[in-house]
Write a structure and sequence with these properties.
Strand content of chain B: 5-15%
Helix content of chain B: 55-70%
Number of strands of chain A: 12
Structural class of chain B: mainly alpha
Shape of chain B: elongated
Order of helices and strands of chain B: EEEHHEHEHHHHHHHHHHHHHHHHHHHHH
Helix content of chain A: 10-25%
Number of strands of chain B: 5
Radius of gyration of chain A: 17 Å
Structural class of chain A: alpha/beta
Largest interface: A-B, 22 and 25 residues
Oligomer: heterodimer
Distance between the termini of chain B: 76 Å
Number of helices of chain B: 24
Largest sheet of chain A: 7 strands, mixed
């Protein structure tokens, strides 16, 4: 099994981006990140050891960021030492991979409101990874986050609310530094079931244009239905 | 210029950029929350500030409110200052002596965040409404399991004593008989202990002697009997759960259970997630809780919106004639949400809610005594029309086949139904005159009549 595994650093993305890896496993080219806490699994994903380094496979069906990479994401600002504000951490699947990427000197602030999933987030992810600061609060009230400081490099938003874009913008205003990146998962079915997904994506993207340069907009099909990821850069 | 800054580990007083004095928290998580909830006393800080006797700027609204209460001359920092505090928080913490260096600060901040998050999870997990939701869900689950298990029991023991299935309706009685063992060992006493009336006991003893069932081996019987035992145990458990839900609902949501009854109330509570969330929902949402599929279908395709979801289980809605159900469900939902709000924010049982609901339901009953136009229509009206006989027969055949499919794929049933209804409506408009030309087979009529 082990000798079938091949690892190649992906260099095609924006200069020299060494944040995630493509691993050949079971004859397929799969995404992986270097495990920050060796031996620790978050969602029963596969661990692969190659040349003494442990990698965790990154499931695109469970993580929308991985799905975006699979669907030709062009900008990947997550790197070593990045400071990330993550809204809608849920059980921490994607957060754990971002935590792998930003490494021990990066910080991920994981905001989650629902206490049921936050329980899993704390148990499985936040308590093992020293670079995650869990915040169990409502993303509607960014002013009240405990323990967040300074401005962050990247804000990643994956929340299911009809007014998710506005909530995200409020957070950006408070915490995103100028020139920082903004990842917004647009959940068309949470915004309005009666409208067509394409129209909702257009409308929501339009709301960003005032303060952001839209870099890319990705349909997450087939990994997620009626979801889109918008990547934008905060105007200086 | 003095400034008072609240951090996770204590409160610091700065004069310009120099630290004047710091007041560390001994238990950061607890004390920080106390300040945020404006419950903290902060005597030391207040004495100190009182001695300064000058206007101080404060970094936090809750802290400001506490200080103002003790008539300290203070004001909130402006946005730029707040931004500055926010940006240099780790440095402030180090300067105040709460941590030794920046790296240490980060570790401590993370610990603080973990502590505060854990306390929140603990707090939520203790709320009684979550336990009620688990109880009512277990109850529904047990019903499902016991139902499946009891039909299996009837099948299996039926091989040995098939006649019993038709005679005994109650699964409890059936299980008790099974526990007694083989047909031969079923004496009068067994039937009497299972609580059957005289006449039935006679019949049972008569039939058991000349049953056409086969013999059952001891091994098989033992398994069948333990299934029967399980079913009886489930019945016990169900009873306990029911009582528990009843008392718990009376305790935490007396008004809601007065309006909805404890079981329906608990199910609605489960759908909403928590009592607090339920109290913040609009009545229209509560009316259709449990009918999400129909609701979204209606939003998407414009079909008829659902009249009631879970509320259909409510006695008032259930017992009412069909044309009144929507109205009654609306009235019940409207009162239920007020009841939930009283339960969360008010106190005690409010009798007028139920009285008013009863008045309104009586009013509906009187005002809409006769079926509204929609329900007056005969079922034939919904049928497809305007085709020749040959077509119709073929169509009938198709339908029947569709029916088969439908049974297999329960999920699609409703969507199909919705489409068909829409089609039917269109056709009616187009060819309104030909309505009574055809009187189709009973089968069709029955199908549409159900809707």
């Amino acid at each position: 099994m082990k000798d079938q595994v091949q690892i190649k650093r992906e260099r095609s993305l924006e200069e020299d981006n060494q944040s995630y890896f493509w691993i050949k496993s079971e004859g397929e080219r799969k995404l992986a990140t270097e495990n920050l806490v060796p031996g620790n699994q978050v969602y029963k994903e596969k661990l692969i050891i190659k040349k003494g380094v442990e990698y965790r496979l990154w499931d695109a069906f469970r993580s929308k960021l991985a799905a975006a990479i699979m669907n030709d994401l062009e900008y990947f600002p997550f790197e070593n030492k990045s400071i990330v504000l993550y809204l809608g951490a849920s059980t921490g699947t994607t957060v754990s991979h971002i935590s792998d990427i930003v490494g021990p000197s990066g910080i991920v602030f994981g905001v989650e409101h629902a206490s049921r999933v936050a329980r899993d987030f704390l148990d499985r992810v936040a308590s093992y990874r020293k670079n995650i600061i869990p915040i169990l609060q409502d993303a509607r009230k960014p002013k009240e986050y405990f323990s967040v400081f300074g401005k962050v490099d990247i804000i990643y938003v994956d929340i299911a609310q009809p007014d998710q874009t506005q909530i995200a913008l409020d957070n950006c205003e408070m915490y995103l530094k100028k020139g920082g990146y903004f990842f917004l998962v647009i959940k068309t079915r949470s915004i309005d079931v009666t409208k067509s997904p394409r129209r909702i994506i257009e409308e929501e993207t339009e709301k960003l244009k005032k303060n952001f340069d839209i870099l890319q907009s990705i349909d997450l099909h087939p990994y997620d239905k009626d979801h889109a990821m918008v990547i934008a850069k905060y105007k200086n | 210029m003095y400034s008072v800054i609240l951090t996770e580990f204590g409160i610091s007083v700065f004069n310009d950029d120099k630290l004047e004095k710091s007041f560390p928290f001994s238990n950061p998580v607890k004390e920080y929350l106390l300040v945020k909830n404006k419950e903290s006393k902060l005597n030391e800080l207040i004495n100190y500030l009182a001695s300064i006797q000058r206007g101080v700027s404060v970094s936090d609204e809750a802290l400001l409110a506490i200080l103002k209460k003790h008539s300290i001359d203070c004001y909130l920092m402006d946005a730029a200052q707040l931004d500055n505090v926010q940006a240099t928080k780790p440095q402030i913490i180090v300067d105040s002596g709460f941590a030794s260096n920046l790296q240490d600060t980060l570790g401590k901040l993370r610990e603080f965040a973990l502590g505060i998050s854990s306390s929140k999870v603990t707090e939520v997990s203790e709320s009684p409404d979550l336990h009620i939701i688990q109880a009512i869900n277990s109850l529904d689950e047990i019903d499902k399991i016991a139902n499946g298990l009891s039909s299996r029991l009837r099948e299996w023991y039926g091989l040995h004593f098939p006649e019993l299935d038709n005679i005994i309706d109650s699964i409890n009685g059936y299980a008790q008989i099974v526990l007694a063992g083989k047909r031969e060992s079923l004496t009068k006493q067994v039937f009497e202990e299972a609580g059957f009336p005289e006449s039935k006991v006679e019949m049972l003893t008569l039939i058991s002697s000349k049953s056409r069932g086969g013999d059952i081996s001891d091994v098989n019987l033992a398994i069948v009997q333990s299934i029967a035992k399980q079913i009886l145990d489930f019945h016990e458990l169900r009873k306990k759960l029911e009582e528990h839900v009843e008392t718990a609902m009376q305790e935490i949501a007396p008004n809601l259970s007065a309006i909805l009854g404890s079981a329906v109330g608990a199910r609605i509570l489960g759908r909403a997630g928590s009592l607090k969330r339920l109290a913040s929902l609009p009545a229209s949402t509560i009316q259709v809780l449990g009918a999400e599929k129909a609701l979204f279908r209606s939003l998407k395709t414009g079909s008829q919106p659902p009249k009631h979801g879970l509320l259909f289980q409510h006695a008032m809605v259930h017992a009412a004639p069909r044309w009144q159900r929507g109205k009654i469900a609306r009235a019940v939902a409207a009162k239920a949400v007020i009841a939930a709000r009283v339960d969360v924010y008010g106190e005690g049982l409010n009798q007028t809610l139920l009285e008013k609901l009863n008045i309104r339901v009586d009013e509906i009953g009187k005002k809409y005594e006769n079926p509204t136009e929609k329900y007056m229509r005969k079922p034939q009206e919904f049928r497809r029309e305007g085709r020749g006989f040959g077509d119709r027969r073929r169509e009938g055949g198709d339908r029947r086949r569709e029916g088969g499919d439908r049974r297999r794929e329960g999920g699609d049933r409703r969507r199909e139904g919705g489409d068909r209804r829409r089609e039917g409506g269109d056709r009616r408009r187009e060819e309104g005159g030909s309505r009574n030309e055809r009187s189709g087979s009973n089968k069709k009529r029955k199908k549409f009549g159900r809707r």
